[in-house]
Write a structure and sequence with these properties.
Layout: H1 2-12, H2 16-29, H3 34-47, H4 50-63, H5 68-80, H6 84-97, H7 102-114, H8 118-131, H9 138-149, H10 153-166, H11 173-179
Helix pairs in contact: 1-2, 2-3, 3-4, 3-5, 4-5, 5-6, 5-7, 6-7, 7-8, 7-9, 8-9, 9-10
Length: 180
């Protein structure tokens, strides 16, 4: 438990490398520690090690198939890997398990936008932002993509600026948004 806590606080400080290392050390002692698998997967996602992140989320879900955070985090990793359809399956499951989890709606907005389901994307983004106006910054990226693809450039720019203002510099979605 001490290694897990050390990893958690390292991530809180923004030290993802130490967080990944300490989650891994906790997993050496307790290989079926689902929270450590999800934590390490999240570090790996943010560090850009997407295949390793998916493996950690898969392992967590093999132990605890109803872990909504693992489903959500695996989904966003699929989004960054260019697979929004696969992501949507995980997001629907996560939403069914925990309908009040705001990040599910934010990520559904992004996956829907990438799939060309613009009305769904805007509805999910609106839901996420109504639930928590500051946290679901992928909702802004999703809105920006919808507006970009529907030639509403002023609105797209405003939404992308809001995303960049809120997202961390290491956020893997940043690269996708920059490419749009």
């Amino acid at each position: 438990l001490a290694l897990y806590q050390r990893a958690f606080y390292a991530v809180e400080r923004g030290d993802l490398v130490s967080g990944e290392r300490d989650y891994g050390a906790a997993l050496e002692l307790k290989p079926r520690f689902v929270s450590a698998l999800v934590g390490r997967g999240s570090c790996r996602y943010q560090l850009g090690a997407l295949s390793e992140a998916i493996a950690d989320f898969d392992a967590a879900l093999a132990i605890e198939p109803t872990h909504h955070i693992a489903l959500n985090n695996r989904a966003v990793t699929h989004i960054v890997r260019g697979d929004p359809l696969n992501a949507m399956g995980d997001l629907v499951k996560a939403q069914q398990l925990y309908p009040a989890f705001v990040l599910v709606y934010s990520n559904m907005a992004l996956a829907s936008a990438l799939l060309g389901r613009y009305e769904d994307a805007l509805a999910c983004a609106d839901t996420a932002l109504q639930m928590h106006p500051n946290k679901p910054y992928y909702a802004y990226a999703a809105r920006g993509l919808v507006y970009l693809r529907t030639n509403r450039m002023t609105e797209a720019t405003a939404q992308f600026e809001e995303y960049f203002r809120r997202a961390t510099p290491a956020d893997p979605v940043r690269k996708m948004v920059n490419e749009w």
